[in-house]
Amino acid sequence: MDGYDRKILQELRRNGRITNQELSERINLSPSPCLRRVRAMEESGVIAGYTTIIDQSKLGKSVTLFVRVKLERHNRTGVAEFERGVQNSENVLACYLISGEYDYLLHIIMDNLESYEEFVRTELHNLAGVSGIDSGFAYGCVKQPTGVYVSGDLQPRTMRKAL
Description:
By secondary structure, the protein is an alpha+beta fold. It has helices spanning 3-14, 20-27, 31-44, 76-87, 113-124, 157-160, and strands at 63-71, 92-97, 104-110, 130-138.
């Protein structure tokens, strides 16, 4: 991965809908090699996909929560059942395995506190193996993720042969 690849990733991080023509102009590379580089990074998995950032408040989703979950069983079956339940939940934006007293951190958005209470009672407590939860509410957002910041001399193994 060289300077052009890093510039491509930085521009796509800012705007994933940029045209190849505009992208090539911004990084000072002709369109054909620019497109080849983008395709190579897509094929190698460096670019895993493209998404849309949605303003949750415009959809009436005004409550952001971070919920720590503790499991009672840590065997393969219990963990798999819990993770399957989380993956099937439309309210869970992200789920991370964490260290410490709790096992998972869930990022959740809800319409209001009442809908969160309903979610806890009908969905979260019914997930396999949940023995405890601890919720924290966000009252503002300082920075929202738009991808990984790209800098330095990155050389992923998957890219070496692709370029």
